[in-house]
Each structure stands twice: as C-alpha cells, then as structure tokens.
Amino acid sequence: VDAVPNSSDQYFAYVSYDIDLFEEGSIANLTASIIGNVFGFKAVKALRLEDMRIPVAYLKTFQGPATGIVVERERMDKFGRPFLGATVKPKLGLSGKNYGRVVYEGLRGGLDFLKDDENINSQPFMRWKERFLFSMEAVNRSIAATGEVKGHYMNVTAATME
C-alpha cells in the first residue's frame, strides 16, 4: 500500500491473485471475480480500479474477440474521457420488459452503456432472447432520444444456444 501523493486519506493498493484461481480462457470469469467481488466489499468506503495486468500466458488461453478499449471507443464514438457505465440492478426478478426499462432509463440518464450482471444468463423468469430484445429496443430508443451512441453488454456465457 502506498499513499497517494498530496492526499492524507487516499492510498494505492496493489493486489495480486494466483492465476490458478481463474478458469482458463475466461476473461469474463477473471474480471467478474476481481472487479465484481472487490467493488462489492463493504469495508471499503471508496474504490477505483486504475490498472489491471493479466499474464500473457493467461491471455493466450482466451479465444474470444481480439478487441479492446480502442475498438470500443471507435464503436461508441467516445474519446477523451472515461466511459460511464453500470450494471443493471436488481439483477434477479425483473421481467425482460422491466429489465429493458432499466436499461433505457440508465442510458437516457447519461450512461454510455449498461451491462448484464455476471450471474444473469437465461433463467425462467427472464430468458436471454427476451432480455436481448428489450435491451436492444432500449438502446435504440436512447440513441434516438440523446443523439449519442449507447450500448448494452449482454452476458453470452451460457452453455446453450437460444
């Protein structure tokens, strides 16, 4: 832990995890475990992730799209500032229609994107296709309302095709 320069109550904390804690090839598992769990730690009053270094050997196990922040900035036409995003909450119990309403309100309210919680897949109360259709309707409506490119990141880690 290092003190933040010119600040008496802020610190840099460097955290390391054994890579064997994470499923090979699953960046989603790695980020959900680290970011989701750490940011949910109630003992920490405020937290900001500044950097995340992933071993090259682990990255080579990932077979997903070879895009990153540069491509997302180009897709969303957002440069010179951080993205502003959020995870849809509550994550359980919403219908697809109400989930889409939350997505629309967040995007219309100024967020650049929302994302599915890592635990949302295709449960009986809200199937993936239904969530997709209502979320995309919300994205398109928010683009029309704001004139800005908006997005919603869907969890597509389910084992079955819908």
TrEMBL record:
GO terms for cellular component: chloroplast. GO terms for biological process: reductive pentose-phosphate cycle. Binds 1 Mg(2+) ion per subunit. The keyword Ribosomal protein does not apply. InterPro entries: RuBisCO, RuBisCo_large_chain_AS, RuBisCO_lsu_C, RuBisCO_lsu_C_sf, RuBisCO_lsu_fd_N, RuBisCO_lsu_N_sf. Residues 7-58 form the Ribulose bisphosphate carboxylase large subunit ferrodoxin-like N-terminal domain. Its cofactor is Mg(2+). Keywords: Calvin cycle, Carbon dioxide fixation, Chloroplast, Lyase, Magnesium, Metal-binding, Monooxygenase, Oxidoreductase, Photorespiration, Photosynthesis, Plastid. It catalyses: 2 (2R)-3-phosphoglycerate + 2 H(+) = D-ribulose 1,5-bisphosphate + CO2 + H2O; D-ribulose 1,5-bisphosphate + O2 = 2-phosphoglycolate + (2R)-3-phosphoglycerate + 2 H(+). It holds the Pfam family RuBisCO_large_N. It is found in: Plastid, Chloroplast. Its main location: plastid. Residues 68-162 form the Ribulose bisphosphate carboxylase large subunit C-terminal domain. One of its GO terms (molecular function) is ribulose-bisphosphate carboxylase activity. It comes from the Eukaryota. Its EC number is 4.1.1.39. The keyword Glycosyltransferase does not apply. Belongs to the RuBisCO large chain family. Heterohexadecamer of 8 large chains and 8 small chains. This is Ribulose bisphosphate carboxylase large chain. It comes from Hypoglossum geminatum.
